[in-house]
Each structure stands twice: as structure tokens, then as C-alpha cells.
Amino acid sequence: MKFKANVKVMLKPSVLDPQGATLERALKSMGHDNVSSIRVGKLIELVLESPDAEGATKAANDWADRLLANPNMENYSLTLEPLK
Amino acid sequence: MSVRAAVVVFPGSNCDQDNVRSWKAVTGLEAELVWHKETSIPDYDLVIVPGGFSFGDYLRCGAIARFSPVMSEIVRLAKRGNLILGICNGFQILTEAGLLPGALNRNKNLKYLCLDVNLRVENARTAFTRDYSQGQVIRIPISHGEGGYSLRPAELRALNDSGRVVFRYCAPDGSVSPGDAPNGSLDNVAGIVSEGGNVLGMMPHPERLAEDELGGTDGRALFTSILRALNGGA
Predict the structure, then answer these.
(1) How far apart are CA B115 and CA B220, in angstroms?
(2) Three-state secondary structure call for residue B207
(3) Interchain contact, A70 vs B151, CB within 8 Å
(4) In the predicted model, is pLDDT for residue B234 greater than 60?
(5) Do residues B89 and B119 lie in contact, with contact meaning Cβ atoms separated by under 8 Å?
(6) CATH code of residue A69
(7) How far apart are CA B221 and CA B21, in angstroms?
(8) How far is CA B104 from CA B23, B38, B44, B200, in A?
(9) What is the number of domains present in chain A?
(10) Catalytic: B88?
(11) Chain A residues contacting B, CB < 8 Å?
(12) How far apart are CA B82 and CA B67, in angstroms?
């Protein structure tokens, strides 16, 4: 079976995010004073083959732990859906 | 004892030749270039993981390089106690590989920074720094976009308490305040050693100021320290 996985990688809340801070300043300079707490992350999409959803989840988590996210400074969340 | 040194080359490394040159200029010894695809390398006494943009810095700096075949050999040598020196991208690779704690983050001002900085030698007892004096202020260039050191507070405290912070960004008079770390490094950390003391990672480039012709020689003592340590000097 084929699955599509989305891995959303975000800097941990405790880690300074200079990109987010810059975007926030930019929006404010456009007059949008109602914006706050901008954080910039990455979205990684991939397709994988696995006999079942459990195996696919396990594999995608493993890849995220080992490569896609750096646990020292990032958290990630995974969503998975079967491909028709 | 004849000291054997190597400099690893990844696709995108760009300080490999600088390190070969500086190592030779300072110590008179050759360093061999080792391609990242090597699966078995000799027991080099010193392996330098140089700066550059390995694999285009894709995903995160050093994140792809750490899976290169040569890295398992570097881990093997690190466990043996051989000296491993990671400079700039090399430091990033060593953190990604888990040989050193923490991570290097986007510079706080989002700019690529290429300038000379002042560093205070925080631990002059390591194999890499014994020819500096404790608290000495040296001038070494940085050249990076992602050099802000970050680590969980408890671990950072432990690193500080155990003398594993080897270099800190400082003012010319040696005082340390957050404004002296141009990249936003926590506690102004510029370089750290492993628990065993045989793996050093640093963002600044000592190989770029190791000859008079280059405008300064503050980087020399790093290489003389290594040689003296490898020759059994105290």
C-alpha cells in the first residue's frame, strides 16, 4: 500500500526563530498590528510503501527522528493518509 | 611517532585545502584528503572535518553529511580517542552525528557573517588548546549563516561546569556579554569539546589565520597544541 506522509517540522518554542521575528516585523510594518507569535517551519511531503498504516507510521517516525528533524532544536508532527 | 592527519572532503566542502595548507605551514606535516565515500580509513591521529556547505546545506547544515559512509569511521576513531576537529560546517556535522551536543541555529540577525571575532580561551588544558593560555583573547574569523549555538539549559550548564566550553565570543578586553556573540550563541559558546576531550567543534576558522601572510597567526597555536598533544607533550 502507498501512503502519503506530511512531516511538519517546527523549531522548539524555546529556540529563537529569527525568521519568524522578521516576518512579524514585516507584517507589522504593513500596518497589521494584530499579528503575533509567528514561527517558521518546514513541511516535508513524502510517499512511502508499507503493508499497513502501522508500518508506514513507524517508518515515517523513524525517518523524522533520524533525519528530517533535529531533536536538539526541533519538534515534528506526522500525518499519514493512504493513497488511492 | 609520526603523526598522521586527514582532512575529510564532502561534496560542498570548501575549507579542506585551507586546512591541509595550514596544518603543513604550522607543523611541517602533510595531511591526506579523504573522500566522504570511504568506508574504511586508517587510524589517523587527527581527522579534520572542514568548513563549507556539505550537500548544499540542504535540510539542515550537516544533516545529510552525517550519513556519509566516512562518518561511521570518524565515530570509530572518536571512540578510540583519536583527535577529531570540526570547524564551522564540520562542527555542524559533528553535532548532527551526535559526537558533540547541541545544534547550530540560524544567526540571530539572519545574515551570513564573515568577520574577525574575539574569542576567549576558556579551557587551555585540552589537546587542542594547550599552547594558548587560560583566558587569552585571540582573533579568529567566522564565516557562517548558521552558528548560533543552542542546547537545553540543564545540559548547557553541565557543559559550562565541566570546562567543555573551550572558546567564547568576547569583547577585545576579554569580557563576555551576549552582544559579543554576533550569531546569538547561547552563553557566547564558540567551541566545545566532547566529554572525552578528543572531539572539538568550533564555528570560527583557525586555519584562516595561521600564517603571517594571511594577516594574523592566532590560529597557529591550535595546530601546535594538537601536534604537541599527539607527540605526548603535557
Answers:
(1) 18
(2) helix
(3) no
(4) no
(5) no
(6) 3.30.1280.10
(7) 15
(8) 26, 26, 27, 14
(9) 1
(10) yes
(11) 11, 14-16, 18-19, 22, 67-68, 70, 72-73
(12) 20
Chain A residues with beta carbon closer than 8 angstroms to that of B57: none
Looking at residue B1, its pLDDT comes to 60
CA distance B209 to B224: 13
Which chain B residues touch A19 with a CB distance below 8 Å?
106, 110
Of B63, B106, B152, the CB nearest to A18: B106
Q: Retrieve residue B42's grid coordinates.
A: 586508517
Residue B91: band (very low, low, confident or very high) from pLDDT cuts 50, 70, 90: very high
Cell numbers linked to A11: 523549531
Collapsed DSSP state (helix, strand, coil) of residue B191: strand
Q: How far, in Å, CA of B158 to CA of B165, rounded?
A: 10
The answer, yes or no, to whether residue B131 has pLDDT greater than 70, is yes
Q: Dihedral (C-alpha) B21, B27, B29, B34: value to the nearest 10 degrees?
A: -50
**Residue A23 lies in domain:** 2-82
The CATH code that applies to domain B5-230 is 3.40.50.880
> Residue type at B153?
P
pTM of the model: 0.94
Contact B133, B121 (CB under 8 A): yes
CA distance B117 to A66: 34
